[in-house]
Amino acid sequence: MKYTFEINMEAPTQEEASLKIQAASTLMQKLSAREISKLAEVVKNDPVKTTLAKKALGL
After folding, report:
1. Cα dihedral angle (38, 19, 53, 56), rounded to 10 degrees?
2. What's 31's DSSP letter?
3. Cα–Cα distance for residue pair 17/11, rounded to 1 Å
4. Of the chain's two ends, which shows fewer C-beta atoms within 10 Å, N or C?
5. Are 28 and 36 in contact (CB under 8 A)?
6. What is the pLDDT averaged over residues 27-48?
7. Taking the domains of the chain in order of start, what are their residue ranges?
8. Is the pLDDT of residue 22 over 90?
9. CA dihedral 17, 23, 26, 27 (to 10 degrees)
């Protein structure tokens, strides 16, 4: 099933907002709800793991 939502986000430019929504869409298509929830929990509550993940991604 396909659902449509209207969302608001903060970004310095419309281009960055579009990039963020495209990336989020890819994550939603490729990961389960449980996996996305766990990822969000780590990003929100574990800065050490978030920093390690960013380094592993070359960010």
Report:
1. 150
2. S
3. 5
4. N
5. yes
6. 97
7. 14-56
8. yes
9. -110
What distance in Å separates the CA atoms of residue 18 and residue 49, rounded to the nearest whole number? 26
Residue recorded with tokens 């990039």:
19
3-state secondary structure at position 19: helix
Q: What distance in Å separates the CA atoms of residue 39 and residue 34, rounded to the nearest whole number?
A: 9
25-36, pLDDT tens digit by residue? Answer: 999 999 999 999
Q: Is the pLDDT of residue 50 over 90?
A: yes
Q: Contact at 8 Å (CB) between 42 and 35?
A: no
Sequence-separated (6 or more) residues with CB below 8 Å from residue 50? 42, 43
